[in-house]
Amino acid sequence: MKLLVLLPTGCADAPVPALDGRTPLAAARTPQLDALAKEGRVGLARHASAGALPVSHQALLSVLGYDPLREQVSRGGLEAAGLGVALGPDDLAYRLNFVATFQGRLIDFHAGQMNSVEARLLVEALQHELGGERFDVHAGTGYRNLLVVHDARGLQIETTAPQWVAGKPVSDGLPKGRDAKLLLDFMSSAAKVLARHDINRVRIDLGENPAAHVWPWGGGTRAVVEPFELRHGLSLGVVAAVPLARGLGRTLGAEVRDVPGATGGWDTDYAAKVSAALELLARHDVVLLHLGAPNEASHPGNPRLKVSVLEDVDRRVVAPLRAALVKRDDVRLLVTTDHMTPLPGGRVTSEVPFVIWGPGIAPTRDVPFTEEGAAAADLRVDEGRLLFDWLLGRRGSPTGRLVADG
Predict the structure, then answer these.
(1) Does residue 378 register a pLDDT over 50?
(2) Is the model more confident about 107 or about 400?
(3) CA distances from 145 to 29, 92, 127, 287, 294 (A)
């Protein structure tokens, strides 16, 4: 049995008044997802330890059957792998966001959804003026970039993801720890470079948020994880645009497909990604199709935008996948997300919805693929990693809950 994992990251949300108390997923017209839910099984999975919120890279490991608490990987290490940046034994890699501030508060942790062309020019300026013996800055996709700190063995620095500081004083989330001054000085120097760059001057003239500051977070060393084929005895293919998912695929020894037109946002080439996933499915046991669009659509704080993006995913991704897979009897489909990404002010929970569909998956309750529908369904997976083995027929069918042995 093969497995196709469709992961529209951030598709789950919290109810918002602007949608009459519904979530964007509940408000969206998603007939294809609802058909999968009617014909398959819906439930909730937890990809973090009880009481903790899921972290993207750990949740992705859990979706692929790894125990995220036992894997010593960092966001920065995986993003470096995703960008093809080789880390030395004494290097630390940090995800580097471009951010905007106002009156001492972090108001925009993605610099107005800055595009990759603008970001690359800013990264080049930072590398030219600040790169060298201690630091190197690498361009990623849009506001998502990478900082590598050399000669960093033993540094004690704690960082905070910028999304958890949004709307709060910048001082609440600045690097701290014995060696934090190293990053603080870099951030201060970078702000001076960015302030005089033409890209930001044009953005201000156009009424767009400038990339006024950089925000390093998620630091870590080179990622090392047991290869997927060695762990599971199966081959893996990955279709993704964002460096994190691509980096995880490369670290696991997967075939990671480059898809021209894949952006990691809602302007991505959905058809090309679907085609690439189906092609990989022809020669791999497991394929992960990662979509960043719902996550990115959460950031501007416009519920209608997220509804529209979810409807696009249903029509342009789920529909052709379902049409292709219904002709086969050897592929199961898992649709889930790694974490919730609520609109500003929304409450985050540790459980996320999923639907499983395909050969041998018998429906039990007729519920839609929504957060509320998943909560009302008959299946809860306390350790998300266990869902992977069950879908591949390695664990008996759950009867309400699927928990770790022993």
Answers:
(1) yes
(2) 107
(3) 34, 14, 12, 26, 20
Helix (H) or strand (E) holding 359: none
pLDDT of residue 153: 87
Residue 233's pLDDT is what?
Answer: 95
Whether the predicted pLDDT of 300 surpasses 80: no
Specify whether the CB–CB gap between 338 and 59 falls below 8 A.
yes
- On average, the pLDDT of the chain sits at 90
Q: Write out pLDDT tens, residues 359-376.
A: 999 888 888 999 999 998
Please tell me the distance from the alpha carbon of residue 60 to that of residue 219, in angstroms, as a whole number: 18
Beta-strand pair 255-257/236-239 = parallel
How far apart are alpha carbons 338 and 68 in whole angstroms?
A: 12
Domain residue spans of the chain: 2-73+224-402, 80-220
Top CATH class, 2-73+224-402: alpha beta
Structure tokens at 138: 């690498």
| Cα–Cα dist 333/324, whole Å | 11
Cα–Cα distance measured from residue 394 to residue 387, given in angstroms and rounded to the nearest whole number: 10
The pLDDT of 310-335, averaged and rounded, is 96
More confident residue, 403 or 213: 213
Distance CA 131, CA 327 (A): 53
Task: Please check the confidence at residue 55 and state whether its pLDDT lies above 50.
Answer: yes
Two tokens at 41? 């099984």
Contacts of 390 (CB under 8 A, 6+ apart): 396, 397, 398, 402
- The CA angle 261-55-347, to the nearest 5 degrees, is 100
Between CA 143 and CA 340 the distance in angstroms is 20
Taking residue 166's Cβ as centre, other Cβ atoms within 10 Å add up to: 18
Q: What percent of the chain has pLDDT over 70?
A: 93
Residue 227 has pLDDT above 70, yes or no: yes
What is the C-alpha to C-alpha distance for residues 297 and 310, in angstroms, rounded to an integer?
Answer: 9
Alpha-carbon gap, residue 15 to 340, rounded angstroms: 12
Distances (CA, A) of 352 to 8, 168, 372: 12, 26, 11
SS3 of 14-73: CCEHHHCCECHHHHCCCHHHHHHHHHCEEEEEECCCCCCCCCHHHHHHHHCCCCCCCCCC
